[in-house]
Automatic annotation (TrEMBL):
Functional summary from the UniProt entry: Catalyzes the irreversible transfer of a propylamine group from the amino donor S-adenosylmethioninamine (decarboxy-AdoMet) to putrescine (1,4-diaminobutane) to yield spermidine.
One annotated GO biological process: spermidine biosynthetic process
Sequence positions that bind spermidine: 66, 90, 160-163
Catalytic function, reaction form: S-adenosyl 3-(methylsulfanyl)propylamine + putrescine = S-methyl-5'-thioadenosine + spermidine + H(+)
Listed PANTHER family: SPERMIDINE SYNTHASE, SPERMIDINE/SPERMINE SYNTHASE
Quaternary structure and interacting proteins, as annotated: Homodimer or homotetramer.
Active site: 160
Domain PABS per the UniProt entry, residue ranges: 5-242
Family matches, as SUPFAM superfamilies: S-adenosyl-L-methionine-dependent methyltransferases
Endpoints of the signal sequence: none
Pathway(s) of this molecule: Amine and polyamine biosynthesis; spermidine biosynthesis; spermidine from putrescine: step 1/1
Underlying gene: speE
Protein name: Polyamine aminopropyltransferase
Similarity section: Belongs to the spermidine/spermine synthase family.
Lineage: Bacteria, Pseudomonadati, Pseudomonadota, Gammaproteobacteria, Chromatiales
Length: 289
């Protein structure tokens, strides 16, 4: 991260590119045992949350990520009741989960309580559901939590993690995903944020499909959608399904959504030609989405 006069910049040196926002003030900074948290006020993108120099969210475009992390997964399940969110300390994904009336229990497990407390202070629109009686917030290691969680105790598991480095790297491997499979009922849905299709197809998305297959998720699919403030502006989330197929999702109509719809769900499941079968490696070449 560089802060040059009144600009925040996140460079991606390996790709020779940077994303920059004009900032007007720094509102908060804090070093925790796990990471370095910063919050800025920007001139045009609302407030900006940064962790370890990387953009986590902006007030202007976070709805794109949070809606697509939650609603495709919950729409793919026929009747989601119990939902687990691993990570997601800013609580934006949790807020979207709570829009579904069928949900009776939502557990969020994030290792760093400081992220949630910063979100409550600086992004209260994201944390408005934290006092919902359906919600349990746990501040502990998600990997350890899953090892101890009862089998077949959740319908949907959402892995809303940071990039697969440091303490988050374990959330992308087959051992962790096998624990996710164990705690899922059948039918069940896992969704994992899976980085940029343009920049991370071979380093993240393809290995993630392999890890999901090794963990026992025969049906898998990667959805893609825009997030302008993330590297390349193009992001993805990958589904692992038990007893379900990606195309068999319900039409879900919810108030106040700004991006997600059944039409956008279908569009997100449609792979660009250059991705070939990467998004659905269980399908033969030339197969449909």
């Amino acid at each position: 991260m560089t802060l040059d006069t009144d600009w925040f910049s996140e460079p991606l040196a390996s790709e020779g590119v940077a994303f920059s926002l004009r900032v007007t003030s720094k509102l908060h900074e804090e070093r925790t045992p796990w990471q370095y948290i910063e919050v800025y006020e920007t001139a045009h993108w609302g407030r900006l949350l940064v962790i370890d120099g990387c953009v986590m969210l902006t007030g202007r475009d976070n709805f794109l990520y949070h809606e697509m992390m939650a609603h495709p997964a919950l729409a793919t399940h026929p009747a989601p009741r119990d939902v687990l969110v691993i990570g997601g300390g800013d609580c934006g994904t949790l807020r979207e989960v709570l829009r579904h009336e069928s949900v009776t229990r939502a557990v969020q497990v994030d290792i760093d309580e400081a992220v949630t407390r910063a979100a409550e202070r600086f992004f209260p629109e994201l944390t408005a559901g934290n006092d919902d009686p359906r919600v349990t917030l746990r501040f502990e290691d998600g990997v350890a939590y899953l090892r101890q969680a009862p089998a077949a105790s959740f319908d949907v598991v959402i892995i809303d993690s940071t990039d697969p480095v440091g303490h988050a790297a374990g959330l992308f491997g087959a051992p962790f995903l096998s624990d996710v499979r164990r705690v899922l009922r059948s039918p069940g849905v896992l969704v994992q944020q899976s980085e940029s299709p343009l920049l991370h197809a071979e380093s993240v998305i393809r290995p993630l499909h392999g890890a999901l297959a090794e963990a026992g998720f025969a049906a898998r699919a990667t959805l893609h959608f825009p997030v302008p403030s993330y590297p390349s502006g193009w992001w993805s989330a990958t589904l692992g399904l038990l007893g379900l197929e990606p195309e068999a999702y319900r039409t879900v109509t919810l108030p106040e959504l700004r991006y997600y719809s059944a039409a956008m769900h279908q569009a997100a499941l449609t792979p660009p030609a250059f991705c070939g079968t990467l998004f659905r490696p269980d399908r033969p070449a030339g197969g449909g989405t």
